[in-house]
Write a structure and sequence with these properties.
Oxidized Rhodanese, domain 1, five-stranded parallel sheet, 16 helices
């Protein structure tokens, strides 16, 4: 039993090290780490903490492992381990177990790394490889923001210069990253005050340009404020960076592809019911983005609820799904939600209805 407790506290310390410490190297493949971490957990930890990390019966004074990666730092975990001897997992073994323990999140998402809680942000916002980005209005940012957060104008996230993708140019994105002090190893964490619709759009743009470590704050600014977490009015000083970026077409569906109307592709309309009724892509499945969030802070619903929502409408993980809305904002949120659930074939039509409806050869269903 001692080894099980030591496994938890020592591993938790090693795990946070994987997120919070910059190694200067690309992060290992998360899927492979989770597979290895699952074996380690089942060998050393499951007997006392249960298969889902929620069992606290053997150690009633110890908190559940659910969301442990969101509320604990390495130092705290190591201090808790003093006086115990047993399993000591470090290095790649610790990283592997972290990748697996991160699936013990309250929402039980397939890709939990895409979403972080305010508790995690407060612990890690000042870490050298973390950059928090605020997408609210300039006045709101000036009145107070997450300490260390830089602001980006959300209105710059869509460009008509490329009518196929509507993505900002590589030079524009490189400029944002430079001015924000973001380098290839930076974990970018985004929030807004609109239920993460703007944050999800920046997530899509950065992901489309090859960024892999990008997360949203669950509940955004509303949740942060409700929890009375620290607020700053200081604009952080950042050291400019420079590195080339290149668009990756796999997350987006260009206009020319949408107009081909390939058989078997499902179109997800994330707009309001009124917008959907006024005109839609023929055969589109309606699932308004607001159905995927809940509560006063518009937090993401648990995976089980989201999967039921989508599956009840014929949207299953193996299907190729293309999301759209009016101008790509809500569609990016829908794409983020699908990817959070492990829908690896989901993409976004970033041009969305604003592009589709102006094309005379595009059929419309009402």
């Amino acid at each position: 039993m001692k080894s099980s407790l030591t496994c938890w506290v020592v591993v938790a310390g090693a795990l946070v090290l994987f997120i919070g410490a910059s190694s200067g190297q690309s992060a290992p493949d998360r899927g492979a780490l989770r597979t290895r971490g699952k074996t380690i957990y089942e060998t050393h930890c499951a007997r006392c903490h249960g298969n889902d990390g929620a069992d606290t019966q053997i150690y009633p004074g110890i908190k559940t492992l659910v969301d442990i990666t969101q509320r604990m730092r390495m130092r705290e975990a190591l201090d808790k381990s003093k006086g115990f001897a047993g399993v000591a997992l470090e290095g790649e073994e610790g990283e592997a177990l972290f990748a697996y323990l991160d699936t013990f999140r309250a929402g039980r998402y397939a890709r939990p790394e895409l979403l972080v809680e305010p508790s995690w942000v407060e612990l890690h916002a000042a870490d050298p490889d973390v950059r928090v980005v605020d997408l609210r209005a300039a006045a709101a940012y000036g009145m107070g923001h997450v300490p260390g957060a830089v602001r980006l104008d959300g209105g710059l996230l869509r460009s008509g210069e490329d009518p196929e993708t509507y993505l900002p140019s590589a030079a524009t994105v490189s400029g944002w990253l430079r001015d924000a002090g973001i380098n290839p190893n930076t974990h970018v964490v985004i929030y807004d005050d609109r239920g993460n619709v703007n944050a999800a759009r920046l997530w899509y743009v950065l992901s489309a340009y090859g960024r892999e470590r990008v997360s949203l704050i669950n509940g955004g600014w509303s949740q942060w404020s409700a929890e009375k977490r620290p607020v700053s009015t200081a604009v952080p000083a950042v050291s400019p960076t420079a590195y080339p970026v290149k668009a990756d077409a796999r997350l987006g569906s260009p206009t020319s592809e949408v107009l081909k109307r390939r058989a078997g592709v499902a179109y997800l309309d994330a707009r309001s019911p009124a917008e959907n009724k006024s005109g839609r892509i023929p055969g589109a499945i309606h699932a308004e983005w607001l159905e995927t969030v809940a509560g006063p802070h518009l937090r993401f619903r648990p995976a089980a609820e989201l999967l039921k929502l989508y599956r009840d409408r014929g949207l299953t993980p193996e299907r190729e799904i293309i999301t759209y809305c009016a101008v790509g904002i809500r569609a990016s949120h829908a794409l983020f939600t699908l990817r959070l659930l492990g829908y690896d074939r989901a993409r976004v039509y970033f041009g969305s209805w604003a592009d589709y409806s102006k094309r005379p050869d595009a059929p419309v269903e009402r």
